[in-house]
Amino acid sequence: MIKKAIFLFFISFNYIIANTLILNDNTNYSDLISTSYQKTFIDKSAKLIIDDMVKNTSFKQISKSNYKASKNTIWTKLSIKNLSSKDLKLYFENNRPIIDIIDVYIFKDEKAYKKIELGENRDIKKRELQTRKSTFSLQVEKNSKYTIYIMYKSYTSISTFWKIENQYNYISSSTLESLSWGIFIGIII
Question: CA of 89: how far to CAs of 136, 169, 187, in Å?
Fold first, then answer.
């Protein structure tokens, strides 16, 4: 009986850890994406709020990250644990710039920490990072766990794909993208 209990404990523990993005001193930020770690819930009533989502146990691991336009609200949940030897600053960038409303709710060690409002229907001047894509940064303290709930509403298609980068990779990729757009527009004009 004790062997069965220990076995079930380890299986449960591995399942919980498998769905958590673990950051350590050797994490490679050049190809880190949210879809490998996030769970998704489709709210067909489009009326649920963050308090409902925190209690919700119906989130499922779904490999799909692109959704057709609909009246549904899509929620994702991503857990991050920083086991590195230092605090980290991470940048999250959604790959689709035309999503109407994106609300990001961040919980630190199970307590409400921060809310970020993004999306096309929001004033870009009020954003921390004023880019054409929905982007936010998060200071991740060492030995802390963060749970990020993201709510998407849009009359266009929705992408739940987020690129996760450290500061160096974010600045490099943003600079390259801006340069590429500048050259493209320069050729057209």
Answer: 10, 11, 36
Percent of the chain scoring above 90 in pLDDT:
60
Write b or e for each residue in 15-52: b if 16 or more Cβ atoms lie within 10 A of its Cβ, otherwise e.
Answer: eeeebebebeeeeebeebebbebbbbbebeeeebeeee
Kindly tell me the sign of the dihedral angle through the C-alpha atoms of 48, 53, 55, 57: positive
- Altogether, the residues listed in the chain come to a count of 189
161-178: pLDDT as tens digits: 999 998 877 776 766 666
Look at the block and give the residue holding tokens 């709510």. Answer: 151
Structure-block tokens of residue 62: 């779904």
Is the pTM here over 0.70, yes or no?
yes
Name every residue whose Cβ is closer than 8 Å to that of residue 158 and which is 6 or more positions away in sequence. 66, 67, 69, 74, 96, 99, 152
